[in-house]
Amino acid sequence: MLQRIFGSKKVQEKEPIEGTNQRPAIDLDQAPSFEIDDTHLVNVAPGFVYLKKALSEEQQSWLVQYALTTCGPNEKEPQKSFWKPRRRKGDWFEELQLNLGFVGRGRVYDALDNFRRSDKVKHFASSLVKMARSHDDTLPDMTPTHMILLYYATCEGMVWHADDDENDGDNNHPIVSISLGMYGFAYKAEILILSKFVGNTGVFGYELDGKVVNVELESGDVLIWGGPSRMLRHCVKEVHQNTAPSYLPPGCENVRLCYTIRDTPTMLGREKEFQLRY
């Protein structure tokens, strides 16, 4: 029996033997159509676009499978996994722990070209930004270069922040953030971020002109901010447990996954400085 540890919380479950795949077959080489539904698009503020119900069930399922497969347990290259290197006991892993287990999250950061099928992820992100720009001419264009994948395993969110660290880039280009599984999010005023939610529901908070606004993002929702909103302060206020849609692949039943895709060419070749080390 496996102990999966998130901070002080422990969940008992079995982990399949490494090399096996108990998930239904989703061909990651055959990405779904990149058509996006902008029926419920809301231009919240200059440089800030909210796409409600933007992603289809097929798109969400592909993105979930992509994240879980790409960032699954990886003993040889743990910086590419949500999970810390873990011990074996016979045919079973004795312990599995998220690499940010003290806050109930796993994190993977790298140049997009170092991820498998990055061409499909780049095209998807660029398609979303193109659609957002057709509704908001204050948004600049972007060329996706880097991606962070986050795995939220608990109801804990993320504190208020702006994407202003060195590896967040030095331009006002859009940031693409795709969320899958459980929902939850929050944000504050001056940034362009593109955020896609797939999976459990969460509460996203943001502040515009000093006023904090909360939005519940469900699986398949998208946020985009940049240009005049590039330094928007935002947070994940909470993640609602057991809200992931049943149509998502196994492995995302009670998890929120978040893609964040950026245009940060000055970080190319410096990725190891910002990856987790073991």
In short:
The chain is mainly beta. Helices cover 12% and strands 35% of the residues.
How does this model look, in words?
With 278 residues, the protein is mostly beta strands. The protein has one domain: Jelly Rolls (Sandwich). 12% of the residues lie in helices and 35% in strands. The chain contains two helices and 18 strands. 48% of the residues are buried.
Reported for the largest beta sheet, the result is: 8 strands, mixed
Can you tell me the CATH class?
Answer: Mainly Beta
Order of helices and strands: EEEEHEEEEHEEEEEEEEEE
CATH architecture: Sandwich
Give the strand tally: 18
Question: From the structure provided, what is the oligomeric state, counting identical versus distinct chains?
Answer: single chain
Which range best describes the helical content: under 10%, 10-25%, 25-40%, 40-55%, 55-70% or over 70%?
A: 10-25%
Contiguous runs where pLDDT drops below 50 for at least 5 residues:
1-23, 188-199
Structural class: mainly beta
Mean pLDDT: 78
Shape call: globular
CATH fold-level label: Jelly Rolls
Q: How much strand content do the residues show?
A: 25-35%
Q: For the CA atoms, what is the radius of gyration?
A: 18 Å
Please identify which CATH superfamily we are dealing with: Alpha-ketoglutarate-dependent dioxygenase AlkB-like
The N- and C-terminal alpha carbons lie at a distance of 25 Å
**Overall domain count:** 1
What's the number of helices?
2
Could you outline the blueprint of secondary structure elements for this entry?
Elements: E1 2-6, E2 9-13, E3 40-45, E4 48-52, H1 57-70, E5 88-89, E6 92-93, E7 95-97, E8 105-111, H2 118-135, E9 146-152, E10 158-161, E11 175-182, E12 186-187, E13 193-200, E14 202-208, E15 211-217, E16 221-225, E17 234-239, E18 256-262
